[in-house]
Amino acid sequence: MAGLILTKVPPQYPVEARNAGVSGTVVMHAMIGKDGTIKNLTVISGPALLQTAAVDAVKQWTYRPYLLNGMPTEVDTTIMVNFNLNRPRTIPEPN
């Protein structure tokens, strides 16, 4: 279904999670409706501090409707949102 995404809102990295150094993947189960909107989104796994941000972002995603025999149909899918801290590394200065 990733190839059918029309609108993909990136999640906001929670300040508390960033400060705690939490990163990881939030895995969710969703139904994509006939109109391409997210329905019945539930978290399967992932760091607790990241789950709300992932859900809030994915609820705003829209997809091109999936067609079955030319008719729009609901699709049962798994969605994964990755959170990665890109902290700069400190390089020691030469003596």
Describe this protein with a few key phrases.
2 helices, single chain, alpha+beta, 7 strands, two-stranded antiparallel sheet, 95 residues, elongated
Blueprint of the fold:
Elements: E1 5-7, H1 15-20, E2 24-32, E3 38-45, H2 48-58, E4 62-63, E5 66-68, E6 71-73, E7 75-83
Antiparallel strand pairs: 1-4, 2-3, 2-7, 5-6
Beta-strand percentage? Answer: 35-45%
Low-confidence stretches: 88-92
Number of DSSP helices?
2
Span between N and C termini?
A: 53 Å
Structural notes for this entry:
With 95 residues, the chain is α+β, with helices and mostly antiparallel strands. It has a domain at 2-9 and 33-83. Helices cover 18% and strands 39% of the residues. The chain contains 2 helices and 7 strands, in the order βαββαββββ. The strands form 3 sheets. Strands 3-2-7 form a 3-stranded antiparallel sheet. Strands 1-4 form a two-stranded antiparallel sheet. Strands 5-6 form a two-stranded antiparallel sheet. The longest helix is centred in the middle third of the chain and has 11 residues, at 48-58.
Quick summary:
The chain is an alpha+beta fold. The protein has helices at residues 15-20, 48-58; strands at residues 5-7, 24-32, 38-45, 62-63, 66-68, 71-73, 75-83.
